[in-house]
User: Fold this.
Amino acid sequence: MTIKTFTFNPFQENTYVLFDETNEAIIVDAGCILDAEKQKLKKYVEDNNLIIKRVINTHLHLDHQFGNRFLVEVYGIKPEASKDDEFLLETVVEQARTFGFPIDEEAQPLGDYIVENQEIKFGNSSLMALHVPGHSPGSMAFYSEKDNVLISGDVLFQGSIGRTDLPRGDYATLILSITKKLLPLPDSTVVYCGHGPTTTIKKEKEDNPFL
Assistant:
């Protein structure tokens, strides 16, 4: 599996394109908001002859789903996320204006829901959905045992954890999610975070001051 990282929008959010030898691909957390960012993502897909099969979200805070409407327009594929985060779409325009972002249309509605232990397939690859609430009620992480990678969203970072002061966030729930769902994964698992650099489960077990 190949994982391409783009860092988009003023929040420096990580958008991921995952694909394998079949050229089938998924996009995780499309945070592109500027036209230049959207075209950069589109060009990468075209240059690598990728076939976009799904658009998925770890969660639905505004910086992780800015580009969802654009992807529907270009590829005709609606985003998927946990139903527990769907309420966040109702206030995206209001939140964006607060931060001065150029958004004048409502958030892209979901096309389907992602649930615990759901297998997300593309090509010869797949990810397992893990429900890890706390940063948001519907936060999901996506794990590939075969490829030894975890897409953690804003749940776990290098040396840090997700904030819990946003709507329906909860610190105790977040810590429980990490300790019960993520830390038991193999130490060598490479963690692709929602912001910042990659890390490993081993490194976070040993060095993360919040855990």
